[in-house]
Amino acid sequence: LQGYVGFANLPNQVHRKSVKKGFQFTCMVVGESGLGKSTLINTLFNTQLYPGKYNDEAPVESPKTVEIKSITADLDENGVKLRLNVVDTPGFGDFVNNEASWKPILDNIEARCDMYLEQENRVNRLKIVDNRIHACIYFIAPTGHALKQVDIEFMRRLHTRVNLIPVIAKSDTMTEEEVFAFKERILSDINFHNIQIYQAPQYEYDDAETIAENREIVSKIPFAIVGSDKEVETEGGRKVRGRAYPWGVVEVDNEDQCDFVKLRQMLIRTHMEELKEHTNNVLYENYRTEKLTAMGI
Ligand code: GDP
Ligand code: MG
């Protein structure tokens, strides 16, 4: 079914509680300019999700500083509401000296935690607004080589503060074999530098189908992404979202050609609640403890 994402099928208990007030999820995209962050956001918000309301907060043209801007879409699927916020960070990694590119982003993530903490400490805690980042999609350039210093530095600085989900940008510029080898290389670099990317837990009490589905999703990390907000025509005359090349079309929504669908499934369906729980129970909790300890409380 075209356009069907499946957040309406979240596990029943979570589901019943949340159906009324709706779900809310915030993710951030980070990576050097030109790697396809804005395109991915459009691809996520585009036809595969039910059309939502855009509210671009800032002009598209960006100066050479890291900016933080967010886009919200209110989605509705079978009467289940999802407010999806995506935070873009144009300017990251664009400086001559990128040593501190991670800093404004870390500051932003922590400021969101501070806002939450401040609300928790209020007398009336019933109307807490949660602007914390539940997942950070980090774009790796499709070089096929080792991770760059800027990648390692960013992930090293951020991994205790946010759920990191690395992706290979513009994976249509690599062959299937190159993508496969590059994934191995990225994971071994991440491992070497003791970086904790998001580890999706497997629950043995899930049914076999769910376990298999989760395993399949997790096995694709770092997801090889192709983004496109344009429709192109395949050789067979189908209109698809994709990128056209002289030798053929790469389809965004074709799981044999890239991992976009898997990334979207993980974020919006299979792991949305888990990403939020991990953010709250582990990442935020650690931040809160550090902060209060530092304040001598
Ligand atoms: P951003 O600077 O990270 O926001 O990158 P943009 O989304 O603006 O994309 C920069 C350029 O790369 C544009 O010309 C896009 O059409 C192109 N682009 C985006 N995603 C892909 C992709 O998956 N594959 C390829 N080959 N090009 C892409
Ligand atoms: Mg952009």
Helical run tally: 8
Portion in helices = 25-40%
Arithmetic mean pLDDT: 86
**Ions, cofactors and other bound molecules:** guanosine-5'-diphosphate, magnesium ion
- The secondary structure category is alpha/beta
Shape: globular
Q: Could you spell the SSE succession in H and E letters?
A: HEHEEHEHEHHEEEEHH
Radius of gyration: 19 Å
Biggest β-sheet description: 6 strands, mixed
| Poorly predicted residue ranges | 47-63
Q: How much of the polypeptide forms β-strand, as a percent range?
A: 15-25%
- Strand order within the widest beta sheet: 2-3-1-4-5-6
Beginning-to-end CA distance, first to last residue: 53 Å
Please tally the β strands and state the result: 9
Please supply descriptive tags for the structure shown above:
3-stranded antiparallel beta sheet, GTP-binding, 297 residues, 8 helices, GTP binding, binds guanosine-5'-diphosphate, 37% helix, binds magnesium ion, 6-stranded mixed beta sheet, Septin-type G domain-containing protein, nucleotide-binding, alpha/beta
Task: Give an overview of the whole structure.
This is Septin-type G domain-containing protein. Belongs to the TRAFAC class TrmE-Era-EngA-EngB-Septin-like GTPase superfamily. Septin GTPase family. GO terms for molecular function: GTP binding. Keywords: GTP-binding, Nucleotide-binding. The chain has 297 residues and is α/β, with parallel strands linked by helices. Helix content is 37%, strand content 18%. It has eight helices and nine strands. It has helices at 12-21, 37-45, 102-120, 149-158, 176-192, 208-218, 260-270, 272-294; strands at residues 23-30, 69-77, 80-88, 135-140, 164-168, 223-224, 231-233, 239-245, 248-251. The protein has a six-stranded mixed β-sheet with strand order 2-3-1-4-5-6, with helices on both faces. A three-stranded antiparallel β-sheet has the order 7-8-9, with no helix packed on it. Strand 7 (231-233) and strand 8 form a beta hairpin. Helix 7 (260-270) packs across helix 8. The longest helix has 23 residues, at 272-294. It is globular, with a radius of gyration of 19 Å. The model is unreliable at 47-63 (pLDDT under 50). It binds guanosine-5'-diphosphate and magnesium ion. Residues 37-38, 90 line the site of magnesium ion.
